[in-house]
Amino acid sequence: MFIKYIDLPSVPEDLIPPIDSIINGKSYSRNDRSMFKCKEINPELEEWLKKSMPFEFYACVFQVMVGWLPIHVDTKNRMVAINYLLCQGGKNVFTNIYDNDKITVIESKNINLKQWHSIQTHKLHNVIGHDTTRISISVSPTDYEKFM
Ligand SMILES: [Fe+2]
User: Fold this and answer.
1) I need a labelling partner for 8 at 20 to 30 A (CA). Which of 57, 90, 101, 119 fits?
2) Collapsed DSSP state (helix, strand, coil) of residue 87
3) So what's the pLDDT on residue 76?
4) What phi and psi values does residue 19 have, to the nearest 5 degrees?
């Protein structure tokens, strides 16, 4: 399995900014595209993550996904993402993992709202089926091997 739920504490609701202010928040990088953006996380939430995640991480962002993502692997050394969905973007949204032929789906999951999970982002993957904005907290672990 390349997508797995992991048993980590739920994010306290009072640390999550209103959805509109996440969407309109400051961009984390200059690589934003219209369909996919990373936004800076608020300091209170970042502090909570540092305290509450039982692993080291080198980045944490809000991911804002407007369009369907093409099949891709994540950039450079992001082998694994630890994510927590704040908005699913619809009822029939699937995160798919593909074989190297970019056609054969080897795993397909409708990921639950507000449940921590790991995704092996070094495998070819995409997200399809959302008809509204999909938003997650995304944490990039330094020691990713324990999630593989
Ligand atoms: Fe990705």
Assistant:
1) 90
2) strand
3) 76
4) -55, -40
3-state helix, strand, coil in the chain (%, to 5): 15, 35, 50
Instruction: Give the tens place of pLDDT for each residue, 137-146.
Output: 999 999 999 9
| Single pTM value for the model | 0.96
The count of domains in the chain is 1
**Rounded distance from Cα 14 to ligand 1 centre (Å):** 27
Domain CATH code at residue 91: 2.60.120.10
Work out the pLDDT band at 86, boundaries 50, 70, 90.
very high
Cα of 54 vs centre of ligand 1, distance in Å, is 23
Residue 9 Cα to chain centre, angstroms: 16
Residue 87 Cα to ligand 1 midpoint, Å, equals 17
Distance 63 CA to ligand 1 centre (A): 10
